[in-house]
Hints:
By secondary structure, the protein is mainly beta. The chain is built from no helices and 10 strands. The radius of gyration is 13 Å and the shape is globular.
Amino acid sequence: xxxxxxxxxxxxxxxxxxxxxxxxxxxxxxxxxxxxxxxxxxxxxxxxxxxxxxxxxxxxxxxxxxxxxxxxxxxxxxxxxxxxxxxxxxxxxxxxxxxxxxxxxxxxxxxxx
Length: 113
C-alpha cells in the first residue's frame, strides 16, 4: 500500500534552516506529482509547494524565495529545504501525492522568536 514517511522536523530559531524529507513507497513515484502542505495550530491545512512528475514547481506566495522543493525519483524521496524561517512557519508539515487522498503522518516544525 501507499506509504509516505516524513522526517526532518525540529525546533529552530527564527532565521534558521531545515531540510524535510518524505520517503515514498507503494506506488510508482516518478509518475506522480508530490506536494507539501502544512497545518498550524487551530488553522486549516494549507498548500506549501508542489513538484510535478516533469519537475514543474509551484510555491505558495508565503514561502516563495525561502523554501525549495525537490525530488529524487531513484530514491523515491521528496524534499523541502526551508530557509529564513519565520515563527509563522511553525506547523506540522505533510507530504501528499497530488490529486489523491494519500498523506504522510506529518513532521513538526517549530520556529522560535
